[in-house]
Amino acid sequence: MIRISALGGLSVRDSDGKPVAGAAAQPRRMAILALLARAGQRGITREKLLSLLWPDADDERGPRTLAQALYALRKDLGAEDAISGSKELSFDPALVSSDVSEFASAVARGDDERAVSLYQGPFLDGFHLSGANEFSRWVETERTSLAQEYSRTLESLARSARAAGDTRAALGWWRKLAGLEPLNARVTVGLMEALAAAGDRAGAIQHSRVYELLVEQELDLPPDRDVLALAEQLRRTADEPAPVAVSVAPSQPVAVVADVSAPVLTTFSPPPTSVDVQPIVSVPPPPAATRDDPPTRRRSPLAIGLSIAIAAGVVAAVMYAMRGSATPRVNVVAGSGPVVAIGNIAAFGGDSAQASLTAPLADLLTTSLARVHSIRVVSHGRMLELIRSAGNTTDTTAGRFVDAARQAGATEVIDGTLYRRPGGILRLDLRRVDLNSGAIGDVHTVEGSDLFALVDSGTARVVAALGVTAPSGSVADVTTRSITAYRMYEQGVRAYYRGDVNTALRFFDGALAEDSLFALAAYYSALSEPSAAPYLVRMERAKRLATRATDLERLTILAGWANSVSSPNFRAIAETLATKYPAEVEGHLYSGIARVMDGEFMAARTSLARAITMDSLGLSGTRARCLACDAFGWLVGGLMLADSMTAAEREARRWVRLQPQSGLAANALVHVLEIEGQSAEADSLFHASPSTDQSYLRTVDFQSSHFIRVGDYASADRLLLLQLRESDPRPQSSALWNLTISLREQGRMIEALKRAQSARMPTGKILKRTNPPPINVLEAQVLLEMGRPKEAAILFDSLSRQHSPGEVESQLSRATVWNLAHVASARFAAGDTATLQRLADSAQRIAEASGYGRDRRLHHYMRGLLFAARHDDAAAITELRSAIYSINAGYTRINYELARVYLHAQRPRDAIAVMQPTLRGDLEASNLYLNRTDIHEILAQAWDAAGVKDSAATHYKWVTTAWAAADPNFRARVQAAQARLTALTR
Q1: Is residue 126 exposed (0-12), middle (13-18) or buried (19+ Cβ within 10 Å)?
Q2: Does the pLDDT at position 803 exceed 70?
Q3: How wide is the angle at C-alpha 406 spanned by C-alphas 332 and 19, nearest 5°?
Q4: Could you tell me which of 303, 362, 357 has the C-alpha nearest to residue 667?
Q5: How far is Cα 46 from Cα 54, in angstroms, rounded to an integer?
Q6: Torsion sign (Cα): 348, 349, 354, 359
Q7: Is there a smaller number of Cβ atoms within 10 Å at the N or the C end of the chain?
């Protein structure tokens, strides 16, 4: 008989349980099966099928397409009569069965237990049919209806069990229902009453706390009075202290009781439902000076997730860089030892307190075994991810779990069952299963006075069976000694991987309130923190506590911290992580990032490509995090920084193919295409991709940046002036910033300066300042370009002294050195070279504290300016070339000054070679400090000197057009460009 499962996913299997070939490859055929399964014996009309699946088909094509689909389905199902009827279609119950129709029948006849056993998850969970909106609406309606029936059935079972005096059964049903409706006060009261009736008043009180937290966070409402009243009543009548609110004393293992040969009862709880969270691509810290930009400044609307030089958000982007990287997946020492996967730990019976320990127990056992360097451990979280990627999170069969373990590279699975013995002693039965032979190995029983003692005993027994040396100390030494803290941490992790970082943060903070030395809780609290400054404070705390974690977790925390603050130790930590744990994605990702930040763009490709391969599941969209997406962002951006645009485009297109619904991938390709001058395709992709942000502000940014890049300033200015009329200060600030850039390009510096200064007002509104907001870097740059370098030097020097509270030495170093480079540019332009040597020496010394390779090169730029002022062309060229981090997006002011020296040395071809790539940089960040019309002017002069008339004329024409309405002090330069253009085009 054919079996169709539509609850918890959609699958079709034959009588042997094997997937039916053919049907699964055609989504609309699968949709027909789902519709027929839901219709049951009443059937569904052909007209209804057509209206849901082919609403736009005409009267001839629609019925023909449906007939072809039905023919193919009957063939796939292996029975002509499987789908019967002419006008109304239905399954032959003798040939086809389905869980959804059986569920409906069980509900109708009042067989609640049968109905609950059939409901394995939401109707058609994860199944999507593109281009069929009516079908999608139908699915949502049916999914809601079935979920409500399931909830009613659970509540009916819970109340019936309570009426019959079956406390254990009632508690089990209420727990299931509370998992579905955690914000429902009636359900919360029911579970609390069941817990109290089972003698677990502390568990009931703790559940009320969780409910209060969730209601406050999710609904921004006060908790229900009935819940509060019941919790208070339980507190008053409790005859024992609330155990969940007190940290537990250091645990001591209890001796192993016995080895048994009987099979151990094993079940597997599905992972929490995860939303499709698009992780933000990790971004190298942008130039420190840009932190004075308006707070709404984003990177260029075309910018991808990597480019150091083109980024314009500060620590907020870095904050998201490695979200989700704390949980170890495979603890690997290359070349030796078994690979162990910890399976599900099931609770025996209906004790809620006991059941609440199973998830922390599996995680703790994994963490404890990870302390043993001679074995490799696959984390429980990794197993859940692999099962989820298979498309059915509710399938908890041993076969599914074994498949996941094999995908993770495990050689054996260890699962277990947890019991509570009289006197509060915990007992754990552990069973080892060899994945190569399928044989069940030895089964061990251990006991412990609490969770940590139990894990320590279990670790000792498993390690002894594996023939390796047991780790010293307790698992509590690398986690926490508070059961309450670990429970809250575990709940936080679940919320975090659902994408609910706000709730996660509250749980992590609760865990830290119980145990302020809990390193992983501190690290995850940083990853969950949405604001930049508090994030850094939290990350600093996690770094201080890292010694209280396993070696892998310690290195991961340190690498995340080092990346976020541009620590000079970042690369060493990253490479240590990759070397000691080569099967961990984070080590290779961080190593690639470190190489990019050092300027070794092509060398970074190997590590980043490996990270993409290892985390290919992240690209499937089935996980709440995506380290492969981070790696792709850095890979594409690194290739762009290397000015290898062809390779960058190839990798961006590969990313889009692998992740077609990713806005990050689409944005990366749009950016590369725009930089390459393929504007038509970039525009088409931007507007066609359903996953890219096409808000009004984003669209204006995209269009105005494009117009500025191609020299259509009139169109850019019209868009931006319209945006200035918005009442919201954020689009005002964005428009003022872009308008200032456009006016600079046109040589209208007086207007540009006014706009840059006006940008302070929206910034002040956004930040709700009582004092005037600080200057932004554009003011200083415009002053420099309008011929007022002394004033510019003063402002740049002021910016170099402005720092944010809480910044560590490496961050201070970055900000200071970056602004000192601008100070040097301004003083050189003013003819004040006396201080350049001192600036260079200071920059070299300060940059030693920065982990960003560009910072460590900038002192060469300052020395190069000094030699250029002395007309020592050879020395200037050597220093300026040594200063270049990226030829197209490092700090393009270096390119400009180097080109001027080359022209002075009568080497125009070399000047062209260093200036041409700057046109392939962005409009902002490191490229902000050189006016693009200035680029065209010097390229025109270089091509002219090289005797290439056509190229020279092209650039001279750009200059004369762009500066047609320039300020009077540009008149001589415009006239010179026009004279050469006329001479070249005669």
Answers
A1: middle
A2: yes
A3: 155
A4: 303
A5: 11
A6: positive
A7: C
Q: What is the DSSP letter of 12?
A: E
What is the average pLDDT score of the chain?
A: 80
Separation CA 238–CA 200 (nearest Å): 10
On whether the CB atoms of residues 189 and 474 are closer than 8 A, the answer is no
Q: Which of 315, 316, 306 is nearest to 889 (CA)?
A: 306
Query: Are the CB atoms for 443 and 264 separated by under 8 Å?
Result: yes
> Three-state SS for 17?
coil
Distance CA 332, CA 657 (A): 31
The first and second tokens of residue 498, run together, are: 């659902």
Backbone angles phi, psi at 338, to 5 degrees: -70, 160
Q: Residue 824 has which token pair?
A: 């040097």
Round the CA-based radius of gyration of the chain to a whole number and report it.
32
CA 563 → CA 58, 282, 595, 627, distances in Å?
58, 10, 12, 15
Return the amino acid letter for 162: R
How far is Cα 99 from Cα 116, in angstroms, rounded to an integer? 11
Measured between alpha carbons, how far is 758 from 835 in angstroms, rounded to an integer? 32
CA atoms of 867 and 877, how far apart (whole Å): 9
| Range 2-149: architecture per CATH | Orthogonal Bundle (1.10)
The C-alpha torsion from 887 through 889 and 893 to 895, rounded to 10°, is 10
- Helix H or strand E encompassing 288: none
310 in Cβ contact with 854 (< 8 Å): no
165-245 has which CATH code? 1.25.40.10
Buried b (16+ CB within 10 A) or exposed e, 211-249: bbbbbebeeeeebbeebeebbeebeeeeeeebbbeeebe
* CA–CA dist 205, 195 (Å, integer): 9
Which residue is listed with tokens 């599905």? 270
Structure tokens at 407: 């995908």
User: What distances in angstroms separate CA 143 from CA 84, 117, 119, one per listed residue?
Assistant: 25, 17, 11
Question: What residue has token string 């498949």?
Answer: 403
* Confidence at 309, pLDDT banded by 50, 70, 90: very low
**277: nearest Cα among 663, 542, 688, 593:** 663
Asked whether the CA dihedral 289, 697, 322, 804 is positive or negative, the reply is positive
| β-pair partners for 259 | 444
| pLDDT tens string 516-550 | 999 989 999 998 888 877 888 899 999 999 988 88
Strand segments, DSSP code E, in 435-543 are 440-448
The CATH T-level fold of domain 252-276+326-478 is: Rossmann fold (3.40.50)
Q: How many CB atoms lie within 10 A of CB 722?
A: 12
Calpha distance 947→479 (Å, rounded): 71
Residues in contact with 28: Cβ distance below 8 Å, sequence separation at least 6, in sequence order: 53, 69, 129, 132
Distance (Å, rounded) from C-alpha 523 to C-alpha 22? 47
Nearest to 280 by CA among 261, 250, 304: 304
- H or E, element range at 665: helix 663-676
What secondary structure does DSSP assign to 904-928, as a single string? HTT-HHHHHHHHGGGGGS-SSGGGG
Q: How far is CA 208 from CA 182, 236, 358, 518, in A?
A: 10, 15, 20, 24
Q: What is the DSSP letter of 476?
A: G
Question: Where do the domains of the chain lie?
Answer: 2-149, 165-245, 252-276+326-478
- Among 272-286, 623-637, 683-697, top mean pLDDT goes to 623-637
CA-CA distance, 10 to 432, in Å (whole number)? 32
Q: Euclidean distance between the first and final Cα of the chain, in Å?
A: 86
pLDDT at 591: 95
Distance, CA of 450 to CA of 423 (rounded, Å): 11
**Rounded to whole angstroms, how far apart are CA atoms 405 and 413?**
7
Residue with tokens 């002693």: 425
Containing H/E element for 538?
helix 532-545
